[in-house]
Design a protein that fits this description.
Helix content of chain B: 25-40%
Largest sheet of chain A: none
Strand content of chain B: 25-35%
Distance between the termini of chain A: 53 Å
Structural class of chain A: mainly alpha
Shape of chain B: globular
Shape of chain A: globular
Radius of gyration of chain A: 19 Å
Helix content of chain A: over 70%
Oligomer: heterodimer
Strand content of chain A: under 5%
Order of helices and strands of chain A: HHHHHHHHHHH
Structural class of chain B: alpha/beta
């Protein structure tokens, strides 16, 4: 029983990371119906920026929020400068652009900061509340931060005029233009938000995974699985998918003998295939019917 | 007097296909003008050309300024509200969110709140459906919502694309009655595209008749109604 609880709670903590990155994927998918393969590397790069700021002597939280800001602006810039010219290109071309971005960010980080593994600080104290053996402060913090990000996004999409405009663009770009919404900028805003949310995920996961240019590869795969599981069109679904996947992965690793830690990634792939076979729109996503 | 909207020799293209062959028409300040014609005559294309939604050549002036070649969203920001073919409802948003979007470009919050009440005054049924997903509204209600959303821009010119399409005659009459009061009370000029020629000619002061992308006849609706060919081809008596 104790092992079970431990596994569930730590599963929720890693799930929080999958959820954040899945949320970032959904931000862009909603408006463009494209999965940004570079999302993980962008998050990794943001985390390096935070690391550089902290190393330069900035207090953790100042560096945290400044990194979010930089990532937001950077995300918008990527959309405006790199994605926009190929906006109308066939899907395959865009996928190649995304993979190109992935490689660029990966190499750029390696070039700037070397491939040596670096330690990244956690803003939360060491140990666990009351000295319990189930869940530590950092894990609780990860869950809390993810939920705060979700709450912020919810309030933004529900009440802010810009959030409303983003939802409008996702549904009906033509009508959005007719009411004067600058659709191009809304797409950039989506990229900015995605980059910012990804930065949070990177900074939260780095103390556990350590910082290196390839740290997000596995996480991104889980985030794909989480987004698919929850439904690529639903932010809430992505978060639920992320948490579910984190817990499932831990339980499978513990209780299904042959999986262990080695096959955990294969487990994520298994989930992706299963979802695509059984319920392609995900748990909360909507079915997209295309007229041909 | 300078016309509020003036199209001169406008051509429009869908890819390599030319859909408008040099159209000229104008809308006076405070006037209602209708564009009539059969399916495929270029009525919707004319509205799209004004809003920069399609490749065009020629001159399009709004309040004396050239708006040709502007982005759709920039045209909207000048005060031209387009009620598109098929209503363009944001189906997954609520009625109220649809209306809020109509006022997206405005910063005068108090006036926006007033305009929201004004729209609910014109269309009381929308007030009842305030929190309902717009996609679940009936066709007539969605048409009202589309007009309401356009009104939220506080436009000086409204472009209406077949507001009668697919609606019951009673609903259509109500919508046209409200369009007249919007024109009279709020001083909104209108360019109305319609299949229902009889109805459109009753509302409008001026009419332009399109055939395969060209204006073949234009004038006061009063005189046009008397015209033999119009009567037999478009009014059906």
């Amino acid at each position: 029983m104790e092992i079970f609880l431990q596994q569930v709670l730590s599963g929720l903590a890693t799930g929080a990371i999958y959820a954040s990155l899945a949320l970032a994927l959904v931000m862009i998918y909603q408006t463009t119906e494209l999965i940004n393969f570079a999302q993980g590397e962008m998050a990794m790069f943001s985390t390096y920026i935070a690391w550089a700021l902290i190393n330069a002597g900035m207090p953790y939280w100042a560096a945290f929020f400044l990194t979010i800001g930089i990532s937001f602006v950077g995300g918008m810039a990527i959309e405006r400068i790199i994605i926009r010219p190929v906006e109308k290109a066939p899907v395959l071309a865009l996928v190649i652009v995304f993979i190109g971005l992935l490689v660029i960010f990966n190499s750029l980080a390696g070039w700037l900061w070397t491939y040596t593994i670096k330690e990244f600080p956690s803003p939360f104290p060491v140990g666990s509340p009351g000295g319990n053996t189930y869940i530590g402060f950092h894990q609780l913090g990860m869950i809390g931060v993810t939920l705060l990000v979700l709450l912020f996004l919810y309030l933004f999409f529900r009440f802010a005029p810009l959030g409303l405009a983003l939802r409008a663009v996702a549904q009906n770009p033509v009508s959005s233009r007719l009411v004067g919404v600058r659709v191009g900028w809304m797409l950039a805003l989506g990229w900015g938000l995605a980059a910012a949310v990804g930065a949070v995920a990177g900074m939260m996961v780095a103390p556990r995974l350590f910082l290196d240019p390839n740290m997000m590869g596995g996480v991104l795969l889980y985030a794909f699985a989480a987004a698919l599981l929850g439904g690529t069109t639903s932010p809430l679904g992505a978060v639920i998918g992320g948490f579910t996947l984190g817990v499932l992965e831990n339980l499978a690793g513990t209780y299904i003998p042959f999986i262990g830690t080695e096959l955990k990634l294969a487990f994520a792939l298994g989930i992706i295939i299963l979802v695509l076979l059984v319920r392609p729109q995900g748990l909360l996503g909507k079915k997209i019917v295309a007229r041909v | 007097m300078v016309a509020m909207l003036e199209l001169k020799n406008v051509e429009a293209f869908y890819g390599p296909i030319r859909a408008l062959h040099g159209i000229s028409l104008s809308v006076e300040q405070g006037g209602i003008v209708t564009v009539l014609g059969a399916n495929g005559a270029g009525k919707t294309t004319t509205l799209r050309a004004i809003c920069g939604m399609i490749k065009t050549t020629g001159s399009i002036k709004f309040e004396g300024r050239e708006i040709f070649g502007k982005l759709t969203e920039s045209v909207a920001r000048l005060g031209i509200a387009h009620v598109p073919e098929g209503r363009g409802t944001f189906e997954k948003l609520t009625t109220e969110e649809n209306l809020r979007l109509g006022a997206f470009t405005r910063r005068d919050r108090n006036a926006v709140a007033e305009d929201m009440d004004r729209v609910y005054g014109y269309f009381p049924v929308l007030a009842e459906r305030r929190e309902q997903q717009a996609g679940t509204l009936s066709g007539g209600e969605q048409q009202m919502l589309a007009i309401g959303r356009a009104l939220m821009l506080r436009p000086r010119l409204m472009l209406l694309d077949e507001p009668s399409f697919g609606l019951a005659p009673m609903i259509v009459q109500e919508i046209f009655r409200i369009m007249r009061s919007i024109n009279e009370n709020d001083g909104v000029s209108m360019l109305l595209v319609e299949q229902n020629a009889a109805l459109a000619m009753d509302l409008a002061d001026q009419a332009f008749l399109l055939e395969t992308g060209e204006v073949v006849m234009s004038g006061d609706t009063k005189t046009m109604k008397e015209d033999e060919s119009i009567r037999t081809s478009y009014l059906g008596y």
